[in-house]
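Students often ask why we bother encoding 3D structure as a string. The short answer is that it lets us treat folding as translation between two languages. Here is a chain of 430 residues written in the first language.
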Amino acid sequence: MPQEIGLLTDLQTLSRFVIGTRAGSGISELKELNNIHGELLISNLHLVKNVEEAAKANLTGKRFIQRMDLLWRSSLEVGPKSHGTYVQHEVLARLRPHTNLKELSINGYGASAFPTWIGDAAFSNLVTLRISSCKCESLPPLGGLPHLRNLYISRMDHVKSVDCSFCGTDLIRFPSLEKLHFENMPNLQAWHGDDDNCSMPSLRELVFKDCVDLRQLRHNLTSLTKQTIEGSPLFIGLRKFESLKHLEVKVESEWIWDSWPCLASLFSLKLSCLPTRKMPSGLSRIHTSIQHLEISHFYQLLSLPDDCLPRGLTYFSISHCPHICGLPTGIQLLKALEDLNIQDCKNITYLPELENLTSLVRLEISGCQSLSVLPSLPTTLQFLSINDCPKLSQNCKDERNPDRVKITRIFSVWIDKQHVVSSSFESHNI
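And here it is in the second language, the structure alphabet:
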């Protein structure tokens, strides 16, 4: 940073302030810069050794700043001895911003607890809060922030559980919160919620990503419509969320099958990386509401039972399942299916006949090197794409092959990224 930047009292744009060790480069240079608009990132806060110097920064007086990022060097790397945790706490206590703030990010803070202004209901304009790589053992009470809509918590290695102290003590807690993400929390094991006093009435999206020790989610979230769980192999299963419509599970574990009866209201389901060898039978009878289903990276999957696909599917995708040999004949019962995608299933040798799928308009097949024959196709099909399927591609281009006839009436056909004109099989590159 330029030395003595604090003399530029009319400065309106300062997106980043890097604290240095030279004279004229400390955080107190911000004292008179009260006309800064927009966003301000303050880095190297671990260099602030004088609490009063932090107070001189006068962040409370900067009413035009809408987004603020406060960055210490990661406490996970530095450790408590490099800079006293008490000092860090007192520094952050004096870096309270103006209540006009809409977005706040705190990264690398090394003390064991947050100052009381974090979560103060006076921050009525705060919409987005990010807390990352901090050394605290518990989360601050944030439920009193009246207009907080997006909350992202990541790399909090010392947090082992979340309970309702996180929700605060207000009568209505997290009244506006819509998105809540927990990511890269290696020691987080459980969220013990209070269904009566902390309902999170507006929460729509909940994400747990790379929380490898997560086991339990005990909270009734009545408004939840979308949930993602990625990288939590020890999780014991989902509870029933009446409003849940979209679920994504990416985990090397099979707990999802035990949770299957709790997911009756789903519209969309994405499953990835499960070690399943054979999907359970009878799944189609439970989940008639599912319309969008994606199965990917099931590296041990050998087969799909005939009755595993929900009858109401409009979209079905299966990809990166190298050992599966074919699709179930039950797919012929999916009268509502509009879009079918088969990708990187190198051992698939056959597909069931599809001519009775009277809603199918789009079919994409790629990376299926063992597949050589197209099934019968419905007259409704409008788009066909075949890529990296050398046997099948050759047959579809051969005028003497029956597969050529199957695609002549399709409006748009693409083979190996070339658009094939069905009448004469003229082609051109994309």
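Translate back mentally: Residues 1-136 form one domain. Keep this in mind for the problem set.
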